[in-house]
Amino acid sequence: MRLSVALDGAGWHPAAWREPGARPAELFTAAYWTDVVAEAERGLLDFVTIEDGLSLQSSYRGRPDSRTDQVRGRLDAVLVAARVAPVTRHIGLVPVVVVTHTEPFHVSKAIATLDYVSSGRAGVQVRVSARPDEAAHFGRRAIPPLDLRDRADPAVQQLITELFAEAADYVEVIRRLWDSWEDDAEIRDPATGRFVDRGKLHYVKFTGDHFSVKGPSITPRPPQGQPVVTALGHAAAAYRLIGQAADVGFVTPHDPAQARAVVAEIQAAHAEAGRGPETINVVADLVVFLAPDAPAAAARKARLDELAGREYTSDAAVFTGTPAQLASVLQEWQQAGLSGFRLRPGGIPADLQAITRGLVPELQRRGVFRTSYDAGPLRGRLGLSRPANRYAASGRS
Amino acid sequence: MARPLKQIHLAAHFPGVNNTTVWSDPRSGSHIEFASFAHLARTAERAKFDFLFLAEGLRLREQNGEIYDLDVVGRPDTFTVLAALAAVTSRLGLAGTINSTFNEPYEVARQFASLDHLSGGRAAWNVVTSWDAFTGENFRRGGFLPQEARYSRARTFLETTWELFDSWRGDEIVADQASGAFLADPEAGQFAHADAHFDISGRFNVPRSPQGRPVIFQAGDSDEGREFAAASADAIFSRHGTLTDGQAFYADVKGRLARHGRRRDQLLILPAATFVLGDTDAEARDLAREVRFQQVSGQTAIAFAEQLWNRDLSGYDPDGPLPDIDPDPGENTIARGRASVRMYRDPLATAAQWRAQAEAGKLSIRELIIEVTGRQTFVGAPATVAEAINHLVQSDASDGFILVPHITPGGLDEFADTVVPLLQERGVFRSDYEGSTLREHLGLAPLPAGQAVREVAS
Q1: Structural domain boundaries, residue B241
Q2: Whether residue B302 is found in the same domain as residue B398
Q3: Co-location of B317 and B234 in the same domain
Q4: Strands (E), chain A
């Protein structure tokens, strides 16, 4: 079973920062992130994702709020991952990157560099932004204030189509740039005075509606060849992107039947894209509130809801109970064709420690989770081989 | 009354993507593996240097329409590798060169603010500009910026990021678990900026970092660049490393500060400098000559000559005489993606001068190129080099140096072990860090808290 955690501030519940043991004043320090990722690594998890966004957190969609009772502010997730990389050894590091306003050239080399500084443990979670306030932070395009839940609205459909088409182009470009150096391009040949064999450096020559990128990357091909590309999806456009371009798709079914349906939809998109036998991991997200006994877990969540002033809801299913109960749910859901789970701890450290020190030993007892890390890159842990370079066979370009 | 000795500032430049960096030497290691960056950073920190410096290049250089293959090629992403280096060092400043043309203020501001948080106040930003459509081919905007607009964009880019950094004063996060107040200010991070280059508004999402903002470096040498530095920078990465040149540059730039309401100690002048050490001065001179031959291979010499002649000279023998034809006076199209090409303002005159020099010294193309390009700044035994550095600083030719080793990653080790102790003995270089932030290392006063540009409801 693949198992990872999604890290966001003090946890996913808006009142998590008020829990005993939380470190709300340290959310912007290296020490906090180092400790949290080290705890995930103690639990032998496949990887952590690190949330990010180009706006202040808000209780509204698409505009800031004026709340002062929730965590506001976050550090750049790629840099948090890079800061943690040298002080961890095994766990995968998967920062969120917003593709709508950033440069594929910069992000490609940033993730390649994360792969170098982590010796092959890098991934990226690509995210589109339909938020008008994020667009206003860049001032280069206007995104209209729409209710994205109204899928019948043609303007919503048009925006979603455009954003996901751009995201697909973006992933294509970062992947081409990762391949724009062949692995053996550096030759250091004193006889001819050449440091590189330029026949093994390739222009990526991408032309699209939102950007054109010539290449090659300034960064050599990263250790994994292709770092792991992931995305979270809730609907058809995202499932298509995952099927076409990602290695891991995070989805939010609320029961095994929904899980089965979304796995089928992503696998169909994967097959349609003609990606061959390459693995696509469909991973379900769950928000978890854990305690040694079920009433205590429920009481914990109730206490957090009380502090927040409302009941917590999420796009993902919310689980409240014991680590053993959670283990049973995960095993049952996995039968729907899921490769594994990404757990969103309701509160850190409580729920993260319940995962690493409660759930993981339980899954190990049941024989469905590793008891030590294997050496090797993140890709291998996800059933992905080191891919051939798309340009290597084509010779000079 | 004799004035007190100035304290020297020293920094380490990771060996660059150019011919100064020798890759053919058996001691030359990887230019991309993190271990190489960690090695140089740890050496610099062991030697109590102020900071580590990374240059930038956003497109692989080309010559004759093909990727230039004679120098080291390839480098990591600046922000990412600096954030990782923050994990293996604890005091060393971390300076990155980041372009104001192919980035946006909101993103760069949050990257630098994040780096400053993650390093405990050690971030620095060398602000550079580009305008060439060649580099633009890798970015959304393409080659959108006329050359004359690049400094105006750089200036307003920098001002805009300062507004973003200052949109958090530094006292907003109270994180009081008992009362439930995370923020003291419901409008923290609010900003609005509109000018010819940027029209942006909203809320900045990184709280104020330990230094308030990164230390600002500027590297341009033109009148506009100097004025930009005098107005806005904390330090200049200059190329004037000799006594006369250095003193002239130093006097010029420091003299501009008063017009901007700034004191002379608010802007440090730090030239780049190369060095070769030996047990004796004579041995160092021999080594320096060997290094120059490593840096300028026959192929490299021809490539350099082509950049001036603006012609294909691949048929010439590098060990033979200079071409007798004149440079092509048209637009220089032979080399792209390097700044040095634009230094030859009058190619015909430069070629005539090179020919005269070659004839007088009976020099081949390769020997001539070795003479006219990139001679080492400091050559000698450790005591000689320490004396030279100290003399230049005390003579106001600089406030210190950004040292560029020619070997990756061990090229600074000997300097750290032999020259630094001599400077420490003379009392002109720190024996240990006194502060924890880069601003403190550089002797810069802490910034005042952010200036809220908005009405704050109290």
Answers
A1: 9-279+378-441
A2: no
A3: no
A4: 2-7, 47-50, 92-98, 123-127, 186-189, 194-196, 206-207, 212-213, 228-232, 248-251, 281-290, 317-321, 340-345
- Beta strands (DSSP E) in B274-324 are 275-277
- pLDDT (tens digit, 9 = 90+) per residue, A319-336? 999 999 999 999 999 999
Instruction: Give the pairing type, strands A194-196 and A186-189.
Output: antiparallel
**Residues in a beta bridge with B173:** B183
Strands B335-336 and B62-63, bridge-based pairing = antiparallel
| CB-closest option in B86, B180, B201 to A83 | B86
Cα–Cα distances (Å) from A169 to A122, A174, B45, in that order, read 20, 9, 42
Q: Return the residue in A33, A214, A303, A307 with the most chain B beta carbons within 10 A, the one to mutate for interface testing.
A: A214
Residue A136 CA to residue A188 CA, distance in Å, equals 47
The predicted-structure confidence for A79-94, as pLDDT tens digits, reads as follows 999 999 999 999 999 9
Q: How far apart are CA A97 and CA A52, in angstroms?
A: 7
Element counts in chain A: helices (H) and strands (E): 12, 13
Mean pLDDT of A39-51: 98
Whether the model pTM is above 0.90: yes
Round to whole Å and give the CA distance between A317 and A165: 28
Instruction: Kindly state whether residues B222 and B109 are assigned to the same domain.
Output: yes
Instruction: Classify domain A2-381 at the CATH topology level.
Output: TIM Barrel (3.20.20)
Q: Could you tell me if B423 and B389 are in contact, meaning their C-beta atoms sit under 8 angstroms apart?
A: yes
Please report whether residue B292 resides in a domain: no
Q: How many domains does chain B have?
A: 2
Tell me the shortest Cα–Cα distance from A76 to chain B, in angstroms.
6
Lowest mean pLDDT among A196-200, A275-279, B78-82, B314-318: A275-279
Same domain, B329 and B204: no
Answer yes or no: do A218 and B137 touch at CB < 8 A: no
Same domain, B364 and B242: no
Beta bridge partners of residue B199, listed in sequence order: B194
Residue B284 lies in a domain: no
**Phi, psi dihedrals of residue B206, rounded to the nearest 5°:** -120, 120
Interface test with B, best of A87, A98, A137 (most B CBs within 10 A): A137
Among candidate residues B372, B394, B426, the one where a domain is terminated: B372
Strand (E) or helix (H) holding B400: strand B400-403
Within a domain: B268: yes
Q: Which of A84, A140, A195 sits opposite B73 (nearest CB)?
A: A195
Residues B93, B230, single domain; the answer is: yes
- pLDDT for B380-439, tens place per residue? 999 999 999 999 999 999 999 999 999 999 999 999 999 999 999 999 999 999 999 999
**B47 and B73 inside one domain:** yes
- Report the alpha-carbon distance of residue A105 to residue B140 in Å, rounded: 9
Size of interface A-B (CB pairs under 8 A): 230
CATH number assigned to the domain comprising residue B46: 3.20.20.30
The domain ranges of chain A are: 2-381
Looking at the fold, whether B353 and B422 belong to one and the same domain comes out as: no
In this structure, of A126-135, A142-151, A227-236, A374-383, the range with the lowest mean pLDDT score is A142-151
The ipTM, to two decimals, is: 0.98
The reported pLDDT for the residue numbered A397 is 44
Q: For residue A122, what is the DSSP state?
A: B
* Token pair belonging to B51: 């900071």
Whether A60 contacts chain B with CB within 8 A: no
Q: Identify residue A387 by its one-letter amino acid code.
A: P
